[in-house]
Structures are given as structure tokens and as C-alpha cells.
Amino acid sequence: MAAQRAELPLVAIVGPTGSGKSELALTLAERFDGEAINADSMQFYRGMDIGTAKLPLAQRRGIAHHLMDFLSVREDTTVAAFQSMAREAIAEIRSRGKLPILVGGSGLYNRAALDVLEFPGTDPDIRAMLEHELERDGLAVLVARLQEVDPVSAARINDAKRVVRALEVHALTGRAFSSFMPEREYVSPTLQIGLNGDRAELHARLARRVHGMVDAGLIDEVRALIPEGLREGRTAHKALGYQQFLRVLDGSSTVAQASEETIVATRQFARRQLTWFRADPRVNWLDWSQPDLGEAAAALLKADFPEV
């Protein structure tokens, strides 16, 4: 059985946060004997459960989930490292005759796992110099410099971490960071299924989810992670909800303010996710609200890969 299924495709379930990707992944995994691979970069962190909407173990229906909880909040990883780990997980799952299902809304991490994609190296000295300049001069100065050497990247990215990375790559290779994003080409047979729906309903879903996180103890989760190094880590403390509720614990915000700020930030993040995934013409879009969602997703898979 395993030998016959060794060349099974990779299924990637994409879309904005709150669209039901995890649930659909479980449905397909049950139907096609699959296992899930996490591509949500904030679910890499141990202890960041409530605020990342990490599916509790008891709700995973016995389906194996890979690449969750492998970092402490003090640690960090790179897209290139994730690419290696994800492809190892995909190969290992296939070797056991199981269907690999990538699920998560971190766009670049998804593409790193799916596509023929080259990642340039890093240089800690260059990175440190750029981070010092960022702290000293501000983000606008670095964005202006990036505009001069790589206007394509400057138009696409607006967060400090990625601006620093783009400038580091240019300094290291002499090439624009955007040149490392080639034509879309899957590294192995793949089906992408995107979930989308009514924008007002998504906004309502996200508001309910944030309020549910608060009710479930998000502020206590944030408090418990502080002695684990949440403030010291480069990435974890910037996660949606965590940065807002750190301010509550610092006394500079209230639970109500932090909740509303998290809702707004999550809606903005969902919009950016949709922009990213809509740019990929290979995504097969389904409405998350359709009653036969699981059947529709299964039909897409069977249509492209009848051997599954």
C-alpha cells in the first residue's frame, strides 16, 4: 500500500485567518488517510496556543500534525529552515503512504514548501549593522534605501524585519531580494485549495474569535510566557494578540482596548493574506460557507489526482 501511494500529491489549504483551514485539513486527512503539516509561523512556538488558534490535541481527531511547538518563544527560525523541515516532513509522510496536507496562512512559508524557490544566505554582521541602523534612524530611512536598490521589494513589503532582510540580501549578493522569487513552479505534484467568503462574515468571525480567545484566558497565556522569554524573543512577542496584551500587563492598555486593537490588526492581516494568495492563479477557491465544503475539496483532489 505504501509503495503505491508514495508519489501522492501535496495538498495545501490556504486562505485568510479564520476561514476554517484547520477543519478542512482534518476532513481531508480523515477521508484520504493524510497527515497535517503546519505552515502558520506563529504556531511553531510552544505555549502560544490560545492566541494563535492552535488546534488542541483533543480536537485533532487522531490526525498527526507536524511542525508545531518546536520553538521556544526566545527562539527564531527562517523561511529557508522551514523549507527544509517541511520538505523532509512531506517526504516522510509520503514514504508511509500517507497524504501530506500543508495548512496555514503564512504566505511565504507556504510558497517555500510548495515551489522551486532559492533562498540566499545570511550574514550576521550585515544583519546586526542594519538592525542598528533601523533602531537609530527608523524604518523610513531603510525603506528609502530599499527603494533605490530594489523598488519591487520596497513596494511589496512594509514590516521592519523583511525590509532588513531585503537589504541584507542585496548587500550580500548584489541582487535584488525580489529576484529570488521566480516564476511559480511546484517542486512536486501539488493541489492548492483556497478558502474565502463574504468579507463582512469574515470580519464577524474574527471578532468572535478574538473575544473567544480573551474569554479562554489569552492574557494568562501571555503572562505565563513572559518568564519563558516572550519579551526577549525577536519574533514571538510581535504575534497578533500577544503584543497587544503585553501592553495590558504593562498597564498601558486595557483588556477592551487590546481586544479591539487585536481585532483590527487581525482583519488587516487577513486582507494581506488574501492579497498574497489571490496573486497565485494556481489556487482553487472554495466558499467556506458552502454546506458541501468537504465534498467540494475532495472532488478537486480526485479531479486532479484520480489515483488518490
TrEMBL record:
PANTHER family: TRNA DIMETHYLALLYLTRANSFERASE. InterPro entries: Dimethylallyltransferase (IPR039657), IPT (IPR018022), P-loop_NTPase (IPR027417). Monomer. This is tRNA dimethylallyltransferase. Its cofactor is Mg(2+). Residues 40-43 are annotated as: Interaction with substrate tRNA. Catalyzes the transfer of a dimethylallyl group onto the adenine at position 37 in tRNAs that read codons beginning with uridine, leading to the formation of N6-(dimethylallyl)adenosine (i(6)A). It comes from Arthrobacter psychrochitiniphilus.
